[in-house]
Amino acid sequence: MSPAPAFPTTATPSDRVGRVLGLNPGMMTGPGTNTYLVGRRDPILIDTGAGVPDYVPLLEHYLSERGWTQPSRVILTHRHRDHLGGVPQLRARFRGLKVAKMIHKDTGLPDAVDDLRHGDRVEGEGVTLRAVYTPGHASDHLCYYLEEEKALFTGDVILGGSTTVIPSDDGDLLDYLDSLRRLLALDVARIYPAHGPVIEDGPAKIREYIDHRMMREGQIVQALGDGLRTIPALVKRIYADVAPALHVPAAMSVESHLRKLAREGRARETPQRDAPSQWEPIG
Ligand SMILES: [Zn+2]
User: Fold this and answer.
1) For residue range 173-188, what is the model confidence (pLDDT) as tens digits?
2) Other residues' Cβ atoms within 10 Å of the Cβ of residue 266
């Protein structure tokens, strides 16, 4: 495999959308979190990165290249640290900067964060963003639909380079699949993900995500039918060709499927003392 070309730290994917990288590369963040500046001037900033010190100078550099001085406001896709971690630095630099997100099961948010709800519109210069509630990766997740481009800012619901993690504490695969279907019902052209490159054929990618999960679910239902009863046993079979380093995310994925099947009344968990839970199919 040849090494991937370096992901650019700034880009202007359209005349309404600029992108500045959060400079927080990692196993879970790929090249880092994309933050987007949306609007023909006084742009709205979607997400803020993780709070990496070099991010604000990079953002200011990009703003000045465009002839702008500061974002008009910040809207967040969800509460994960690599999306809202930059809020304090931005506010230190841009006094009085407004920040909004869907406030839902939040603790420890920065001060003075305004609430946003499904269907709310955020207007900027030549742009209208509509909030779309999309829980599953996180229970407070909003995507933003840019009406003028029929483009979707998907946060962590759809990613440029990998599948989305469904964390066991706050994630929910059943909600996630509902969210994907809700996105598919919109008239979507492009997708601007929070990690990785622009996705030109949005609906194809959304369908690919749904198909991938349904394929995985089929494998898990089959394995339960064959008598496999624990997450480690399921991971060993289904991820036989995957490096052991990836077995932790694989186990999280299998668990998300089992919890979905349980919510649907198709599987039952029996916790064990000092051993992995036993899972059995129903019906
Ligand atoms: Zn996230």
Assistant:
1) 999 999 999 999 999 9
2) 15
CA of 272 to the centre of ligand 1 (A): 31
Determine if the pTM surpasses 0.85: yes
281 Cα: distance to centroid of ligand 1 (angstroms): 31
Which structure tokens are listed for 242? 């995957």
What is the distance in A from the centroid of ligand 1 to the CA of 138?
7
The C-alpha atoms of residue 78 and residue 80 are separated, in whole angstroms, by: 6
- Residues in Cβ contact with 179 at an 8 Å cutoff, skipping those fewer than 6 apart: 133, 134, 135, 136, 141, 157
Phi, psi of 191 (to 5 degrees): -120, 135
Tokens of residue 222, six digits:
């089959």
Can you tell me the distance from the alpha carbon of 218 to that of 239, in angstroms, rounded to the nearest whole number?
14
CA of 51 to the centre of ligand 1 (A): 15
Name the token pair of 117: 């709800």
Tell me how far the alpha carbon of residue 80 lies from the centroid of ligand 1, in angstroms: 5
156 CA to middle of ligand 1, Å? 5
